[in-house]
């Protein structure tokens, strides 16, 4: 836990400067330890648990988790009558 507490958290807090962030890891045995999972769920704003992480996914990409929530937030920031609405197209640019 010392590595995470002393290095990960200060780095992430400095880098993201108050913005919410998500910690993503693989399922290496040390990463799946209950103590590690507990620490990350308590200390990180968002965390992909070992139960949520698909097994044997060498092609899993962080973008799979973050891009859809960002797209949804931008697309749903204002109500739209149609997909082609001007505000939707402007919001995507």
From TrEMBL:
Superkingdom per UniProt: Eukaryota
Pfam families: DDE_3
Signal peptide from the UniProt entry: none
InterPro entries named in the record: RNaseH_sf, Tc1-like_DDE_dom
GO MF: nucleic acid binding
Limits of the Tc1-like transposase DDE domain: 20-83
Name assigned to this protein: Tc1-like transposase DDE domain-containing protein
């Amino acid at each position: 836990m010392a590595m995470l507490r002393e290095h990960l958290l200060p780095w992430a807090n400095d880098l993201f400067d108050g913005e919410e962030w998500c910690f993503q890891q693989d399922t290496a045995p040390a990463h799946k330890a209950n103590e590690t999972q507990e620490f990350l769920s308590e200390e990180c704003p968002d965390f992909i648990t070992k139960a949520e992480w698909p097994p044997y996914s060498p092609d899993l990409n962080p973008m799979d988790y973050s891009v859809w929530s960002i797209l949804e937030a931008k697309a749903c920031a204002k109500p739209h009558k149609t997909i082609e609405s001007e505000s939707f197209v402007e919001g995507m640019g």
